[in-house]
Amino acid sequence: VKAAVFASGTGSNFQALLETDNLQCEIALLVCDNPHAAVIDKASAYKIPVFAFNPKSFSSKAAFEERIVERLQKAGISWIFLAGYMRLVGPTLLEAFNNKIINIHPSLLPEFPGKDAIGQAYHSGVRETGVTIHYVDEGMDTGPIIAQESIEVLNEDTERSLKEKIQQVEHQLYPKVINQLLQQSEGLI
Ligand code: GRF
């Protein structure tokens, strides 16, 4: 089974997936909407093919998503894992990969959707936050939830220490949930 990771930034989750020994799929492509993102260097280091594009050189979201779908189909990709892809997925991709697009988000959704979820949670003073893995729909972090893991916010936590704790959980939880999904979907065939 082949999967693509979509990421726009640093790529620590991408790297965690690549370093998971028992991942039940092959990460066969990185899709990146920022040709200068650090995640591209990570893909090169691991010899993962990259499809990088600049959205501004396309006339619309549908136009670049059509190109992405072409590239995914050519590579035989059946799952898409978003890991810091800072962009809403549109109908072109959602229809081509129905129920096969998953996202990881650093809060207990539906709390703190969107950008800087860790900072939002930290500054709101909640005592608990966490990580959510969910199916992607056309909304911003709104699709059906698959798994959540909570993290206590301690008095001594800083925004930075909270971020580190969340990242540690993310790097464990994403591969685990992906393996569960892959097993379930094989069982259905
Ligand atoms: C992660 O916190 C993920 O939950 C969110 O974007 C961040 C990506 O971080 N969607 P990285 O690029 O994987 O380090």
UniProtKB/TrEMBL annotation:
Q: What is this enzyme's EC? A: 2.1.2.2
Q: Where on this chain does N(1)-(5-phospho-beta-D-ribosyl)glycinamide bind?
A: 11-13
| A GO term for molecular function | phosphoribosylglycinamide formyltransferase activity
Q: Which domain of life is it from?
A: Bacteria
**What residues bind (6R)-10-formyltetrahydrofolate, as annotated?**
61, 86-89, 103
Q: What class of enzyme is it?
A: transferase
Could you tell me which pathway this protein works in? Purine metabolism; IMP biosynthesis via de novo pathway; N(2)-formyl-N(1)-(5-phospho-D-ribosyl)glycinamide from N(1)-(5-phospho-D-ribosyl)glycinamide (10-formyl THF route): step 1/1
All copies of the Formyl transferase N-terminal domain together span 2-178
Enumerate the SUPFAM superfamilies for this protein: Formyltransferase (SSF53328)
| Active site as annotated | 105 (proton donor)
Q: Which UniProt keywords apply?
A: Purine biosynthesis, Transferase
Question: What residues correspond to the site Raises pKa of active site His?
Answer: 141
Determine if Transferase is one of this entry's keywords.
yes
Q: Which reaction does it catalyse?
A: N(1)-(5-phospho-beta-D-ribosyl)glycinamide + (6R)-10-formyltetrahydrofolate = N(2)-formyl-N(1)-(5-phospho-beta-D-ribosyl)glycinamide + (6S)-5,6,7,8-tetrahydrofolate + H(+)
Q: Which family does it belong to?
A: Belongs to the GART family.
Biological function: Catalyzes the transfer of a formyl group from 10-formyltetrahydrofolate to 5-phospho-ribosyl-glycinamide (GAR), producing 5-phospho-ribosyl-N-formylglycinamide (FGAR) and tetrahydrofolate.
What NCBIfam families would the database entry show? PurN (TIGR00639)
Q: Can you say what this protein is called? A: Phosphoribosylglycinamide formyltransferase
Q: Which organism is it from?
A: Virgibacillus halodenitrificans (Bacillus halodenitrificans)
- State which gene encodes it: purN
